[in-house]
Amino acid sequence: MKELKHLNKYFLKYKYKLIVGVIITIVARIFLLFTPRYVRKIFDAIEKGLNGSITKEAFKSELTLAILYIIGAAIIAGIFTFLMRQTIINVSRYIEFDLKNEIYQQYQRLSLNFYKKNRTGDLMNRISEDVGRVRMYAGPAIMYSINTVTLFVIALIFMYNQAPTLTLYTIIPLPILSVAIYKLSREIHKRSTIVQEYLSKLSTFTQESFSGIAIIKSYGIETQTADNFYNLSHENKEKQLSLVKVGALFFPMMILLIGVSNLLVIYIGGLQYMNGEIESLGTIAEFIIYVNMLTWPVATVGWVTSIVQQAEASQKRINEFLKIESEIKNPTTENTNIIGDIVFKNVSFTYDDTNIQALKDVSFSVKHGETLAIIGQTGSGKSTILDLIGRLYDIDSGHLLIDNKPIDTINLNGLRDHIGYVPQDAFLFSDSIENNIKFGKEDATDQDVIQAAKYAQVHKNIMGFKNGYNTVLGERGITLSGGQKQRVSIARAIIKDPKVLLFDDCLSAVDTETEEKILNNLKKLTSGKTTIIVSHRISAAKNADKIIILNDGKIVQSGNHETLINTEGYYKDLYLKQLSESASN
Predict the structure, then answer these.
(1) DSSP-derived 3-state class of residue 519
(2) Same domain, yes or no: 62 and 166
(3) Would you say residue 55 has pLDDT above 70?
(4) 310, 396: one domain
(5) Is the Cβ–Cβ distance between 156 and 167 less than 8 Å?
(6) 394: Cβ–Cβ under 8 A, 6 or more apart, which residues?
(7) pTM given for the model
(8) Are residues 306 and 359 in the same domain?
(9) Which residues lie across from 374 on neighbouring strands?
(10) 262 occurs within a structural domain
């Protein structure tokens, strides 16, 4: 149960609602337990009537009164049972809401390394399936536990006051039940953990298949993928069945033990009645009703135990992520105004997941308002520089300064608020085009959105859609072409009006004519902003104030466009190659 202690803070948060729920539960059970007592009185009245101890009119009066009491108690118990569910089950929904938000906030705090080491399907499963199982513990399990304990305590008090010896015989099966529950619970806990792990595998496979459906179809491997899904589903089914088989032992065992209790009540009660140890046959009838009323609570002991074991297994998986400390820590809550001076001094960086050293002793500087272009082959470390500026990773050695301050001393949220970043792989959300652009600035007006789209040369494309800016995109923006997605991403960065603009090869899917128009617009927009452009095209770099050439994580050349085309090296070779291609086209 130690894993479930994490939920104690939520129970404290909603303690008043839970206390009210407990009181309502107790009241509901008390009224419910009036029924056996009045059934006993009915049997006693019948027995007296048969013996001639009371008149017919008195018998009718007692019978009518007892029936009215039973009906009234049942109605009141029903009302309070409804209120009990409304109180305690609602609390479980509140806790589910809070826990999901806590997990989501933790996911957002964690660094990119975390997402490289964990699969999306597993993350989704922990915030959905695992939280759902924990909610069952916070709601139904607690409700039925209170219900069972209350019913047991009150019923046993009533039973013991009526017939102490008969009560002791009635509860003989309970110790056997407790031992059986303990052993089965341990096995359920073990199998629940395995089931959740397989659910994560299944969720991951499904998520990746849906995301990569275009690749699956283009390679014609639908059958192979379906077979893989079948095999994984089959394994998951087998694990689920192994859990269900253990859980299925509970109810037959409960019914058997309750049946034994009933037989004991009838046999022992009958003997006691014949020996004059109990007053009437009504007492036997009362006890049989008590035993049958306890049937469901006793049966729920197994069900509740199963829920608790599954919830503990799920909460353990949730806690594994909640306990992870983000590698990227926010050093201060004080917001910082960024000007845009950036300095790299002997910066080196190695990716933890691959152990590849992306940058080796890199040094350069960009002043506020300047434009820096970074050119180099694939894998040379260009994108890594942009990731470090946005502090998606922390450097291994050297110094990275923003406005002459170490980047790890600047408020993280303030830093990123002043950066407009256009990634290499444009990511758009399953929302309208307008909202995707507004993602960079939530309070942007419609005019702001249109102006940003015009600067990014995508306004005409958007207006070509039936619903214009209200067009809802498919997953990851699949509705748009590669070039259109890149331009919408550029518009999203532009509308933010940041102090620092980072463009990571974001014009690779755009034709040269459109690229030229966008670059001319950016030249106007980036005035007074620090701009870093990563590109394979010389056209994107020729207007830059500074250009650095990367190779294998090192700066091999630097200068401006004029000096570099007159200097032997990668930049000149690339320039001549692209000039030749342009002439041939």
Answers:
(1) helix
(2) yes
(3) yes
(4) no
(5) yes
(6) 327, 328, 388, 408
(7) 0.73
(8) no
(9) 534, 548
(10) yes
